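Suppose a colleague, Dr. K., hands you the sequence of a protein chain of 230 amino acids and asks what its three-dimensional shape might be. Before reaching for any lab equipment, you can write down a predicted structure in token form. Begin with the sequence itself:
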Amino acid sequence: MVTPPPVLLRDVSVGYGGEPVCAPVSFELAAGGAVALVGANGSGKSTVLRAVLGLLVPAAGTVEVLGRPVDERSARHRREVAGVLDDDAYFPALTVAEHLYLTARGHGVLGAHDVVAEVLDEFGLAEHARALPVTLSSGQRRRLLLAAGFVRPRSLLVLDEPEQRLDRRMRDRLAARLRDERAAGGAVLLATHDPELVAEVCDAAVHVGETVSEVVDPDEAARRIGRAVL
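The predicted structure, expressed as tokens, is then:
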């Protein structure tokens, strides 16, 4: 029996109010693979991610996640798909450590305290474990958001511009963590403007555009970002 890919899009058109924001998108993401969505600001990358996460119904086309039509309400989707979007969503009354612990325990992680301690250290948040999110800097809040994605089980990780507000050291650490994710058999789908992240992590890319959306290799995607011609 052939195992279906974690993500499969066929001629997917996404937008708001019936108006598509980009040309139809088609691609496949295999287990252990990483696909980057690249394109200009406002090209529709984040909107495509929302369709994959089941937060937006596409106007046309087919979105399959883990071999089934996407349904963010299903227990399997919530168990196996972790999404980190470009918005700050926290439990305001919980400390950094409590936020991560609740996320881990809510997804059935055993030994949650140890997992949280490891992720806190990995994302440079250990010294802020007892702080409230509102007291953190913008970059620290971004790291907390990413940490929440890594503290829970997943077979598919969806990230919206994860490099935003990270310094170089943390960006390099993120790239290494995503390579580890792939090596363990996980699938990664991300939208990004970082050519180095594409080249270092991904095995394919999708240029999302207003008139044409096409699959390109990571080196070509990185060159396009570098030339700022997306």
